[in-house]
Amino acid sequence: MKISSAIYLTSAVSEDGILKDDCPEVAFVGRSNAGKSTLINCICGQKNLAKTSSKPGLTKMINYFFVNKQFRIVDLPGYGYAQTGQKHIANWAGLMEKYLLSSPSLKTVFVLMDSRNTPSELDKMMLNFLNTYKIPYIIIATKVDKLAKSKIPQACNMIAKQLGVRKEVVMPFSAENFTGKEQLLEYLEGIIN
Ligand SMILES: Nc1nc2c(ncn2[C@@H]2O[C@H](COP(=O)(O)OP(=O)(O)OP(=O)(O)O)[C@@H](O)[C@H]2O)c(=O)[nH]1
Ligand SMILES: [Mg+2]
Questions:
Q1: By percentage, how much of the chain surpasses pLDDT 70?
Q2: pLDDT tens digits for 102-154?
Q3: 62 in ligand 1 pocket by Cβ < 6 Å?
Q4: Which of 18, 66, 174, 176 has a CA-to-CA distance to 44 between 20 and 30 Å?
């Protein structure tokens, strides 16, 4: 797939804002700072479509983008940001759960994890949730430009093992040197078409 157009559509801060029409959707979840917004910009070939930050916790809303006039990419707020209070976490979990359970055209969830880190308890809870509700997902090991090339398969295998998934489910990605970009776009094509 080639992404030839991508525009910001709208944001949701509560259940009322969740879009429920029949336009196909893919969503990006993961720990704060994992690289969700950066990946979206990378595959869309735009620098500032989704807002990115070196400070975790930037994306606080559900942000919708309309791509190729055909499907939506959804940038979800990150989890595990240490400085957010209990109230924020409860709001986040509520909104996330509502999004994941009441988006009729959600095709696949991309779960992003920094390839240098061991999956966290929150990552495991996210996978557990997706498994429980039979929501299709794929795992993206991000920022592989930070690893020696020879260590990338090892890092992906470690993530797969920790999460109890087949190693084919973990795809390496870098927004810096575009590792995995073509594969991801191909995968997206398979989901949407
Ligand atoms: N080296 C490298 N840095 C990356 C890559 N992807 C993202 N980053 C950096 O990681 C930081 C966080 O990226 P974001 O895309 O804002 O992360 P996010 O997952 O959207 O974070 P939240 O919105 O807080 O949930 C930024 O400083 C990015 O420049 C990558 O592929 N390689
Ligand atoms: Mg973000």
A1: 94
A2: 999 999 999 999 999 999 999 999 999 999 999 999 999 999 999 999 999 99
A3: no
A4: 18
pTM (whole model) above 0.90: yes
How many C-beta neighbours within 10 Å does residue 80 have?
Answer: 19
Measured in Å, residue 55 CA sits from the centre of ligand 2 at 10
Q: Is the CB of 122 under 6 A from ligand 1?
A: no
Q: Which CATH number goes with the domain that contains 166?
A: 3.40.50.300
Q: Does residue 1 belong to any structural domain of this protein?
A: no
Q: Which of ligand 1's atoms lies nearest the C-alpha of 41? A: 15
Give the count of domains, the chain: 1
Residue 80 in contact with ligand 1 by CB distance below 6 A = no
Cα angle value 159/165/169 (rounded, 5°): 80
CB-side exposure of 77: number of CA atoms within 13 Å? Answer: 25
